[in-house]
Amino acid sequence: MIDAEKKIRVCFIALKAYPIFNPEVESVFGGAEVDLYLLSTELAKDERFDVRFIVGNYGQSDQEVRENVTLYKSIDVRKSYILQGHKIWQAFRRADAQVYMHEACSLGTALAAFFCKTHKRAFVYRTASSLEASGKHSGKLSVRKFFIQWTFRQANTFIVQNEQDAVNALRTVKRTAKVIRNACRVYSIKTVRKSGVLWVGRSKPVKRPDLFIKLAKAFPDISFTMICQRSLDDDAYQSLVETARQIPNLEFLKRIPFQDVDHYFEQARISVNTSDSEGFPNTFIQSCKAGTAILSLNVNPDGFLNKHNCGFCAEGDWQRFTGKLSEWIQTDHAQSVGQNGLDYIQAHHDIATIIQQYKDIFANEAF
C-alpha cells in the first residue's frame, strides 16, 4: 500500500461530467466529459495516483467518491459561469491537486490556468475540437482570442487529438502539442444481426442534426435511429424533436445513459456523422469498437477513415454522402468496413495502453 502523502494528486475538470458518474442524473454531457471520465476512472485503478474531479452542482453532496474518484461539487452549470467563478475557484482549492487537467475551452479553462499559475500547480490541457487548434474557436473578438491563446500557452502540457491539429496549433497558438488518441475500453462484442442507421450526439448546430433528419427522409425504406441530447443553450430543440418525430422511419431518442449507448452502436449497421467540424469524435470510437461502419459527411481526422478502411468521408459532398449510404445498404461492404474499424480500435485506442501516456505526463508535471 502506497502512503497517501506520496500519491500523485491529479484533478480533472469537467463540470458537466457528473451525469456520467451518476446515470440517475438526466442531464447533457459531451465528448470532452466522456474523455475525462474514462481517463480519471482508469487512472484511479493505479494506487500511485489520488484522482479527483471537479463537477457541477446537480444537487449531490459537496464531496463524494465514485469509481475511486473523489468528486468535488462546484457551480450550477445552468447559470452564468462568470457570476459563479468564485465557487469554481473554491473547488480548485478544495481539490488541492498537484496537476489539473481540462478539456474543451471555456471561461473555466482560463480560470483553471490562472489558478495553476498563481498556486504553482501544473496545468494540462487537451483540445476537444479541431476548431481550437485551427484558431477558429477564438472567433473574431480580439479579447476572446487573447484569453484563449493566453490560456493555451499557460498549459504545461498541451494535448491535441490528431496530427493535423498539432500542425495547426503550432501555426496559430505557437505551441508544440502532444498528440494522444482518444481512449476507450475495448471489449469483446456479441455477434448480432446489424441493421439500420444510427446518429448519436448533442443538438449543437455544429453537429448538424438537421442533416440526419434530411437523410432519413431521403431513404424512407431504411430504419434510422437518432439519439440526440438537448444542448443547454438550444432553444430550438423542441422544434427539432417535433420535426424528427414526423418521419415514420426515424426513431428519435432524447437521452440514453452513457453506460447503455454502446448497445445501439452494436446493433447498427452504419453510424453517421454530419458534423461540420470535430477533433476526433467519440462516436467514431464507439462505432469502431462495435464493428460498425462509419459514414461521415465532413470529419475525417488525419484521414483515418481511408487509411484504415473503417469508413467513408464524403468531404462535404452530399451526393457522395447519400450515394455511399445507398451502396452500403445494397451490399455487404459495410460489414467488412466495420470489422476493419474493430481491428483499428484494438490496435490504437485501447485505454489500457493510452493511459500510460497520461501517467507519464502527470508524474513528470507533478514534481
Give the SSE order as H and E letters: EHHEEEHEHEHHEHEEHEHEHEHEHEHHH
User: Structural class from helices and strands?
Assistant: alpha/beta
Distance separating the two termini: 21 Å
- The overall average pLDDT, rounded, is 92
Number of helices: 15
Poorly predicted parts: none
Largest sheet: 8 strands, mixed
Number of strands: 14
* Order of strands, widest sheet: 3-4-2-1-5-6-7-8
Radius of gyration: 20 Å
Q: What is the 3D shape?
A: globular
- Percent helix range: 40-55%
Describe the 3D structure.
Strands 3-4-2-1-5-6-7-8 form an 8-stranded mixed beta sheet, sandwiched between helices. A 6-stranded parallel beta sheet has the order 11-10-9-12-13-14, sandwiched between helices. The chain has helices at residues 18-21, 31-43, 85-95, 107-119, 130-134, 142-154, 163-172, 209-218, 237-244, 258-267, 282-289, 304-307, 318-330, 333-348, 351-366; strands at residues 8-13, 49-55, 63-66, 69-73, 99-103, 122-126, 157-160, 178-179, 197-202, 224-229, 250-253, 270-273, 293-296, 311-313. By secondary structure, it is α/β, with parallel strands linked by helices. α2 (31-43) packs across α15 and α3 crosses α4. The mean pLDDT is 92. β3 and β4 form a beta hairpin.
